[in-house]
Amino acid sequence: MNPIYEHNRRAWDERARRGERHTRQVLAKDLKNPLPILDPENWLGGNLAGKRVLCLASGGGLQSALCAAAGAIVTVVDISPEMLTQDRQSAAEHGLKIKIIEASMDDLLALSEAGFDIVIQPVSTCYVPDIAAVYRQVARVLAPGGLYLSQHKQPVNLQADVAPTSSGYVVREPYYRTGPLPAVAAGSLHREADTTEFLHRWEELIGGLCRAGFVVEDLVEPRQAGVVVQPGSFEHRSLFMPPYVKIKARRVGKPSDEPKPAALWTPS
Ligand SMILES: C[S@@+](CC[C@H](N)C(=O)[O-])C[C@H]1O[C@@H](n2cnc3c(N)ncnc32)[C@H](O)[C@@H]1O
After folding, report:
1. 175: closest CA among 209, 203, 140?
2. What is the pTM of this model?
3. Helix axis angle, 81-94 relative to 3-18, nearest 10°?
4. Domains in the chain, please, with CATH?
5. CA 168, 172, 173, 176 torsion: positive or negative?
6. Tell me: the pLDDT tens digits for 170-222?
7. In 12-51, which ranges are E strands?
8. 79 within ligand 1 shell (Cβ under 6 A)
9. Which of 185, 186, 201, 240 is 20 to 30 A away from residue 144, measured at CA?
10. Which is the closest atom of ligand 1 to the Cα of 9?
11. Euclidean distance between CA atoms 87 and 80, whole angstroms
């Protein structure tokens, strides 16, 4: 496995062991009414019964369990064995059926073409250098007309310092950059200090979807900003830069032959 993916896999294994942010498993009370937790925007239309759902880079035992409780036929893919162990635990504890596959989000050859009606991907594309490769894989496994709900880190969230100076949060990293981002100090809630992350520009996040054969039907910036907040806190930094973007896209056609954005960094 490429060393960066190996590093991120180990980092997420450790994060799961330590029970850190974004590793929480489903709670029994969540399963009584799973859809508003899974899909607060109601992009799924309130009904997952019988739908073939892929929870992509979604280990941890939260989204997969919510989908299964809502009646979906669920597969979860993740690179971290420990995160997937939690899906196994959630399934066993709550009597749910979840198919578990260890794989990288940009290599879904273990999954059949057009085998899913819906793909749900929480924040995770920041862990791979080439988001277009992920989109191509999602387009391949989604049936025509299928929905792809994904969440990503906004570029500026990855460009700016995690802590403020007296004049605000310095946007330090160039927008037009390649390669892994410099590591950040531990303690940030916007960045996972122990992982290696990559910035994807808007033309890659949104334009890349269109070039992969999707149409964008909606886009939201989940509000994380606080009203009265401590400088340096998650809510304070979020006042200046929304950390995430959520995109609703539908697979409509074949990936286009349009020219692609400039070549990305690839690990040696
Ligand atoms: C922010 S967590 C998302 C999952 C979590 N259930 C949540 O609620 O947010 C990011 C996930 O991406 C996974 N991941 C990192 N790199 C990956 C890759 N190349 N392929 C698949 N999964 C990957 C991590 O193991 C982790 O489970």
Report:
1. 203
2. 0.94
3. 40
4. 3-251 (3.40.50.150)
5. positive
6. 999 999 999 999 988 777 788 888 999 999 999 999 999 999 999 999 999 99
7. none
8. yes
9. 201
10. 25
11. 11
